[in-house]
């Protein structure tokens, strides 16, 4: 697989507790180049447990970095988290997470999106759909192979399961 071409140079903007997930919106300027197209990072959000598996294994939490082209085509970079050591990046975010659902607040600590990526960017690649309604097809999925860690308490922030059940591969081709 070709190396990922990520240019994450713009900072986070707001954090939202929308009662389903934690969502971080980003200022313009972060891009993913894929298949000779430029995808702009819009936001990331989290699911617990994971919506994808790696070699049949599910994970405690999954981050989706959602990108879109100017024409509205979508690409999602997924980062898996297993229970383990406390994640320093998530710790800072959780401190700023609004307690009341529906609230969005300006982040005081505005990390670059790259801060949430593992050092190793090897990945699996497949075409699929959105995992939340309207579950539209045509999403380019990139699932990073390097698994991150988060503490039990950090994962518990995602108190209620908010994942779409893992879907069968069917005729989908998964590249690695």
Describe this structure in words.
- The protein has 176 residues and is mostly beta strands.
- It is built from two helices and eleven strands.
- Strands 1, 2, 3, 4, 5, 6, 7, 8, 9, 10 and 11 form an eleven-stranded mixed sheet that branches.
- A hairpin with a 7-residue loop joins strand 9 and strand 10.
- The longest helix is centred in the middle third of the chain and has 9 residues.
- The protein is globular.
- The model has no long low-confidence stretch (mean pLDDT 90).
Question: Strands, helices and their partners?
Answer:
Blueprint: E1 5-8, E2 12-17, E3 22-26, E4 30-34, E5 37-47, E6 61-68, E7 74-83, H1 88-96, E8 104-106, E9 123-129, E10 137-144, E11 148-150, H2 152-156
Inertia-based shape: globular
What proportion of the residues form beta strands (DSSP E)? 35-45%
Gyration radius from CA atoms, angstroms: 15 Å
The H/E string reads EEEEEEEHEEEEH
Number of helices: 2
Structural class: mainly beta
The major beta sheet can be summarized as: 11 strands, mixed
